[in-house]
Specification:
The protein is α+β, with helices and mostly antiparallel strands. The protein has helices at about 1-25, 30-50, 75-85, 90-95, 100-130, 170-185, 185-200, 205-230, 235-245, 260-270, 285-295, 335-345, 475-545, 550-615, and strands at about 55-60, 135-140, 140-145, 155, 160, 255, 295-305, 315-320, 320-325, 350-360, 365-370, 380-385, 390-400, 405-410, 420, 425-430. It is about 55% helix and about 15% strand. The strands form four sheets. A five-stranded mixed beta sheet has the order 2-3-5-4-6. A five-stranded antiparallel beta sheet has the order 8-9-13-14-15, covered by helices on one side. The protein starts with a helix and ends with a helix.
Length: about 625
């Protein structure tokens, strides 16, 4: 039962994690299809990841077993025990009643789960009642059902259900195109999956928000795809508003009506998000990695088996199948000779130890170990430094069939040895005074927006409409007036190509500038990847050369942090420039459209004035 509660807690936490990532990073982006798979992946991950547990074994020293002496019980103690058995009442002797809260919590969860399952079944029954006995019209991959009930249009797998008597032909076309997208992309599965998760995690308020986000994103997808087919986007939006009058819908379907109509209209008219915003989908990866390291690594402590026959001051360690021969900084020449002799005698392994160097304290500063295996291959470790070595060793593993595996190890750190099997390993531990100081790589500079003058708006000379004749009964005056009106309309039409040409020129200019900037950004991102790799290598070199506790290491790491701060500032400036660029482009486009609207408004005012005079 405890394992079940832990699974529920972990899964609920992952649901919250994915929902927060979507809400704060992705809900305002127009990558609707990518957001659909992101949300579904979040549900699947919340169920699958808690089962993926990495087991880490930590070996500890065996605890000595101390046998406590057995003490004879006194007569007084025995008498007291007999007294309690004889005279205490059963009510006092028995344990008091305790509430098992685990069963209480499980019972509450079961009641909520059962209630939602019943609600789910009722929804299926309601759907079946709507479809039962109705005439189905099969067209291509869709099944159209025209009903008489006052229910909002919906789709359920390949069924598209609507009441044609409630809509005009244009409205019905918009509704059907919308529901076709739901049916064609199989959005019903998303709805059912979200409902199942609401049943399983009903107690978690975020799962209901998660379901709402899934349904809302599905509507964004259908609106976006339907708008590409429907010619009159404004009429489609009016249809959305009209459907809000419906109060009833089938719960487990993709119904045309959604309560967040305003958000749907806003997203329908929103500009496409920039491609580089796709990085937001990968922001969840560090959070998942932290979740794995915090909750999915199970540490098991096991006692080491008793070591027998430790030789040469703990240099040789054995168990049933593995023998580890360690060479430390204080290993003597006699012990090195003994190691080579023992390996030859016990395992028939030829080992040659050479290039041995020591410091004034008789500690090893350089050593070379060559191991020749039975298959003729040679393994080598060569360590050389101006200070005492950290250590190395030879591991001999005996298999069940009697064959032996040889491996060489170097102790970079006691808990992180490096193992070399069929290769040559050379390691130089450099002193602080060796070599030239390391220079950190230079971070790349983010690109700047292309400069250039925006296309100039053409000067619009809107003609004045002719004045109608005072006396409408004069045929000559009316003929002249009609002639002037024809000339006026001709001049007005001559302005429209100039406006259209300017819009085309402006769009081409903005598209070209955005394309150039996108190319520069791709180069910059590649340079940043290279810079990150170089910085990792630089940090490793600094650690190897100076060590983590040295002053030089701290100085270089501070320099690295300063460089990264400069990179962050550059990125902030880039984001600021990007926003300003987008604002400028939008302002230019608004100005152009405003001028066009002003010209058309002026023309309409003149026409109304003319009609009023005629009347």
């Amino acid at each position: 039962m405890e394992a079940f509660f832990i699974f529920i807690a972990k899964s609920s936490g992952l649901v919250i994690l994915f929902y927060c990532a979507y809400y704060f990073l992705l809900r305002k982006e127009t990558f609707f299809n990518s957001s659909r798979w992101f949300l579904l992946a979040g549900l699947i991950t919340s169920v699958a990841l808690p089962f993926l547990v990495y087991t880490k074994i930590v070996w500890i020293e065996p605890t000595p077993i101390v046998q406590a002496p057995v003490m004879a019980a006194s007569k007084t103690t025995i008498a007291a025990m007999d007294y309690s058995k004889a005279y205490l009442s059963p009510a006092v002797a028995e344990d008091p009643f305790e509430i098992n809260w685990n069963y209480v919590v499980l019972a509450v969860y079961g009641i909520g789960f059962l209630a939602l399952v019943i609600k789910f079944m009722i929804d299926f029954y309601s759907l079946n009642s709507v479809l039962k006995g109705k005439k189905v019209l099969q067209q291509a991959d869709f099944k159209f059902v025209d009903i008489n009930e006052n229910i909002a249009p919906f789709s359920y797998f390949d069924y598209i259900v609507y009441n044609s008597s409630m809509y005009t032909a244009l409205e019905l076309e918009s509704i059907i195109e919308h529901e076709k997208v739901h049916s064609d992309q199989n959005h019903t599965m998303d709805v059912l999956i979200s409902r199942v998760f609401c049943v399983l995690f009903w107690f978690n308020p975020f799962i209901w928000l998660y379901k709402k986000a899934i349904l809302q994103n599905l509507e964004f997808i259908a609106d976006s795809e339907a708008a590409k087919i429907i010619t009159d986007k404004k009429a489609y939006q009016y249809t959305l508003l009209k459907i809000t009058a419906h109060e009833s819908c089938v719960a487990i379907t993709n119904h045309f009506y959604q309560s967040l109509i305003k958000k749907r209209i806003v997203m329908l008219n929103k500009n496409q998000s920039k491609k580089w915003n796709y990085w937001k989908y990968y922001a969840i990866i560090p959070a998942l990695a932290a979740f794995i390291f915090l909750f999915q690594i199970k540490t098991i402590a096991q006692e080491k088996e008793a070591k027998e026959g430790r030789e040469s001051k703990g240099i040789i360690e054995k168990n049933d199948s593995t023998e580890v021969i360690k060479i430390q900084k204080n290993t003597t020449d006699q012990e090195l000779k003994k190691i080579t002799a023992d390996l030859k005698q016990k395992h028939n392994v030829d080992v040659v130890i050479s290039d041995v160097k020591r410091n004034s304290e008789n500690e090893l500063t350089a050593i070379k170990v060559d191991v020749k295996r039975q298959n003729g291959k040679t393994q080598t470790i060569h360590i050389e430094s101006n200070k005492a070595i950290k250590g190395c060793g030879i591991v001999v593993s005996t298999q069940d069939n009697g064959s032996k595996n040889i491996a060489l190890i170097t102790d970079d750190a006691p808990s992180n040895p490096r193992i070399f099997r069929n290769q040559v390993a050379e390691r130089d531990e450099i002193n602080d005074t060796d070599g030239d100081p390391l220079t950190p790589p230079t971070p790349p500079t983010p690109p700047s927006f292309p400069n250039g003058a925006m296309p100039q708006m053409p000067t619009l000379n809107v003609p004045m409409p002719p004045m109608p004749p005072i006396s409408s009964g004069s045929k000559a005056d009316m003929a002249n007036f009609k002639k002037d009106m024809a000339e006026y309309e001709k001049k007005v039409k001559s302005i429209e190509p100039s406006i259209a040409a300017y819009e085309k020129q402006l769009n081409e200019f903005l598209s070209q500038r955005d394309a150039n900037y996108e190319k520069d950004m791709q180069k910059y991102e590649a340079a940043m990847d290279k810079f990150s790799a170089e910085m990792e290598k630089f940090a490793e070199n600094i650690e190897v050369k100076y060590g983590k506790d040295s002053k030089e290491y701290d100085i270089n790491i501070k320099q690295y942090e300063q460089d990264m701060e400069h990179v962050k500032k550059d990125m902030k400036q880039y984001q600021k420039d990007a926003k300003q660029h987008e604002r400028d482009a939008r302002q230019k486009e608004r100005d152009a459209r405003q001028k066009e609207r002003d010209a058309r408004q002026k023309e309409r005012d003149q026409r109304r004035d003319l009609e009023s005079r005629r009347s």
